[in-house]
Structure formats: structure tokens, C-alpha cells
Amino acid sequence: MMHIETMMIGDTVVQLSGAGSPLVFVHGFTTTAEFWREQVEAFSSRYRVIRINLPGHGVSPRPDGRSYTIPAFANDILAVYRALEIDEAILVGLSMGGTVVQSFTLSHPERVRALVLVGATPHGLGEDVNVDNVLMAIDDLGVVQASQNVIDRSFGSSASRELVEFARQEVAQTPAFVAREAIASLNASDSRANLRDIGVPTLVVVGNEDIITPPGESVILAEGIPEGRLEVIADAGHFPMLEQPQAFNHVLESFLGDCDPRSFRSSGAGLSRQAV
């Protein structure tokens, strides 16, 4: 069985496995690091897989005295880099996590070797996660039911009942005050004018049945980023890495190979080994 190390860095629970060049995964709004579970074994044989569980989500703490915004989450990623002594990594962001890693890349370009944006947008989301609709649903239904209603519409038509139920249980862990602040910040974020400044190879991945972040938004990302490329995963909704893991992992593996992971840099002893 693969060894997974869990550690706390600030308000962030981080799960680590494997050895090699650092590959950092960041989840989305009200989801958790477990949404990357299908990538752990597939990539830990060649990479140091680092799954960040953002503060306020899943098993991570949710202290009252901090922010749950895109800039704050980007600072949490920086804290992980520093604690693990990572100089450079590939960042993979899902949905809101895609917005977070765009922000991080624009602020710290020297720390990003390449970027992967999954079900992400440069600005705005589908009606199911429109800020007004989300806040109204939280008020009317409570945060758990509101989050689970979004999950019910997030998967493609071929997703199993068990997979949907897994996701429903994961999102139920995010409290209302975290969800409110995060969705407001996500709604306000807009990278459209800065996409040309993302100067690293970028893979944009979207499910062809995604109604949370419609594929047209992924087209805008891929066309706006100078080294952007688009991959559409068939028979998948908002979570292609869970719904079609073999197809997703194949696309990601091909992209990583093109990025030449041997050139990664990390001063941390546990992360300095080169990919083989």
C-alpha cells in the first residue's frame, strides 16, 4: 500500500506521497484534496505528489480570524512551498483551485514550472455557482444542502451513484462562513486582462458535459494564455479526474512529459530527487 504522509502547514492539511519533481494539486470550492484521489497512485511513482486541502475545507482547520479568499488561498500555497522548501513545481488547480493557481502564478511566476487548469475559468462561473444563487441557497437551504445540490449537477451522465455520494459527503464539511467568503471572492476574481502574462506551459482540461464551468470558458483560457492548450474529456462533467480518471491521467501524463520534469528545482531534501 502506498504511504501517504499527512502534515499541517499553517491552517492547511497537506497530503504527500511519492518522490521526484513536485506536483501540487489544489481542489475547488467546498471540495477537498480527496477529489484528487485517482491521481495519487498514478503519479506518485515519478513525482512528489502534494495535495493541498485548503483552509476551511474538508479536514483543514477553519479559524474565525483569517480570510477565505483567492489571495489568502494563494498565500497558503506559498506557505506550503516554503515549508517543503519547494523552489519550483507544476501546479494543478480544479475550479476555484484553478483561480487560486492562476493568482499564484501571476504573483510568483518563478515558482511555477507549468500550470494545469481543470474545470476553470478566467472570470465567472455557471449559474449553479453564481454568487447570488449560492448565497441565496445557503440562506434558504443551509450550506450542506446548497453544496450538495451543486454536486448533484456537477457530474456527467455516466457518473456512478457511489461517486456522486462520495462527493456529497466531502462538500458537507465546509461551513457556511467559509463558503460565503470564498464564493464572493471567486465571483470577484478576473484574470482575463492578465492571461497573456502567464508565461508557462498551461494545460486546460474540461469535461464535455461540464455545466458548472462550461467548456467555452476553457477555450478562453487556452486561447488567452500564450502557451495554453485545451483538452476536452469525453463523458465527464465538472470532475473529469474523478469521472474519467484513465483519460484524465493520460492527458496529464503526456503534458508532464512535454514539460521535461527533469528541469524542476527544489532545495528540500525530500523533494530534490529527479523524476526517472
TrEMBL record:
GO terms for cellular component: membrane
Can you give the residue ranges of the AB hydrolase-1 domain?
23-249
For this UniProt record, the keywords arranged alphabetically read as follows: Hydrolase, Plasmid
Q: Which InterPro entries match?
A: AB_hydrolase_1, AB_hydrolase_fold, AB_hydrolase_sf
- GO molecular function list: hydrolase activity
Among Pfam families, the record links this protein to: Abhydrolase_6 (PF12697)
Q: Which residues form a coiled coil?
A: none
Do you know which PANTHER family this protein is assigned to?
Answer: AB HYDROLASE SUPERFAMILY PROTEIN YCLE (PTHR43798:SF31), MONOACYLGLYCEROL LIPASE (PTHR43798)
Protein name, UniProt field: Alpha/beta hydrolase
